[in-house]
Amino acid sequence: MRSVALPSRVVRAARTHSRAFSSRSLIPDEPVKPQVLTAAVPGPQSLAISKEIDQIQDARTHVLVADYEKSSGNYLVDADNNVLLDVFGQISSIALGYNVPQLIELAKSVSLAEKKVTQPLTLPQKEFITAALNRPALGSFPPKDWAKWLEEGLLTVRPKGLDQLVTTLCGSSANETAFKAACMAYRNRERGGAAFTQEELDSCMLNHAPGSPELVVLSFKSGFHGRLFGSLSATRSKAIHKIDVPAFDWPVAPFPNTQYPLAENEAANKAEEARCLAEYEEILVQHKKTRPVAAVIIEPILSEGGDCHASPEYFRQLRLIAKKHDAYFIVDEVQTGVGATGTFWAHEKWGLKEGEEPDFVTFSKKMQQAGIFHKLDTRPNAPYRNYNTWMGDPMRTLQARELIKVIRDNNLVEHTAATGKKLSATLADIFSRNQGVVSNHRGQNDGTFQAFDFETPAKRDAFVTKMRANGIQVGGCGDRSTRLRPTLTFGDAHLAILAEGIEKTLKQI
């Protein structure tokens, strides 16, 4: 692919970023550009392997079949040896890229142990071997260094005001855990900390009140919070996620139908946010009479539902109104967390003051380990309440510790914020020359976590498919949106390739 000159304002922005980072400093063997060898992606080998998998597991959602051994850095290699620049990142789940040598060294220790190779191992390697080969029932038999591993890793990035941590298996289970903790804390507060009554203990075994109380969780139109029973009841992004599955009768509040760019539509958006906030508060008021809202859950950017944005003040008011009506407030950072928006946690941009912090922040995806951060007053009042056999995975906790170290050592959150500014300027330049084809570019102040719309779902799907044929993997969301989810090591060289790919593809669809 030929090189693309970045807009002059992007070059000026790059010059002001004194500590430039290159992914090749972490991943020396990363490819320099995409290479597509087949007429279409997926190619014949991917299609054949998908057909084989389909004999035992539904393969209809397959995009391609990957060769992860060959993939490197920001490039995903498929079974046909096509090399794609991956700016979707396994649905926003890859923090640094594929096969990062520093992480390979950590994982390599397990292979050495299995082969009984005698050579000195570092302490992190020894810990990783122990965690990988002896997966414990964490709630009952934690490893002796468990507190140390948490303090050196996950707790170093805990959100402000939250010093408690529960590790879980995935993003959906993180949200389910937060729902349970919120309901338990709500009822404990109502009882004034008193012991359970015999009536409560007996009735819960029949799924009846008062032991199974009529509490609800409020979520927002277009929100996505997972696919388990409770999290699916709070999910509002697409009907195909929910159809045929019994659901809790939980309320849904409107999310602002925001106009983009945000800076050019401030007055209209402020009025729309005020309308939605009023309706949201009315739902809380009305439910308090019969089925109180125990928890409110919101994503800082409603990702699966179409990358929907609102102002920091809107989110701050959501939190304050929830507090006013005694509802716990859950921020779902499963997709937005771990640096992609130019701050480690996206909700850091809301300007919350001391005492306004969320009650829970859930995480997964880029962190590799899932879980919830919360406050001491939302710890269950008895053991075995937020509990299961594995309660996460110590190996993934150690992987998260290493990821966090790499992110910090290389200033990758700051790098992503700077790269995001260049990406915003580059896309604005491209879209200004393609008006009527692409609209609603958003995320300009959110690092590389950006999106844009096409006129129809078919046009969006054609764009995503053709981008892949042109050597770039992007993702869709909502009905007609394309989302960008690069790794934290995505930089100038990748941006130039992405820009050329978008320019080329817009002319082809």
Count the domains: 2
CATH topological fold name of the largest domain: Aspartate Aminotransferase, domain 2
Are there runs of 5+ residues with pLDDT below 50, and where? Answer: 8-18
Structural class: alpha/beta
The fraction of residues in strands falls at 5-15%
Using the coordinates above, name the CATH class of the largest domain: Alpha Beta
Number of E-state strands: 14
CATH architecture of the largest domain: 3-Layer(aba) Sandwich
Share in helix: 25-40%
Describe the structure in your own words.
Belongs to the class-III pyridoxal-phosphate-dependent aminotransferase family. The chain is of the alpha/beta class and 509 residues long. The protein folds into two domains: 8-99 and 411-508, Aspartate Aminotransferase, domain 1 (Alpha-Beta Complex); 159-190 and 205-332 and 359-392, Aspartate Aminotransferase, domain 2 (3-Layer(aba) Sandwich). Helix content is 39%, strand content 11%. It is built from 16 helices and 14 strands. The protein has helices at residues 8-16, 44-53, 89-92, 101-114, 123-133, 146-152, 171-191, 198-204, 229-234, 239-242, 266-288, 312-324, 394-409, 412-432, 457-469, 492-508; strands at residues 75-77, 83-86, 164-168, 216-220, 252-253, 293-298, 328-332, 360-363, 370-374, 438-442, 450-454, 472-473, 475-477, 481-484. The strands form three sheets. It has a seven-stranded mixed β-sheet, sandwiched between helices. Strand 8 (360-363) and strand 9 form a beta hairpin. The longest helix has 23 residues, at 266-288. Residues 8-18 have low confidence and may be disordered.
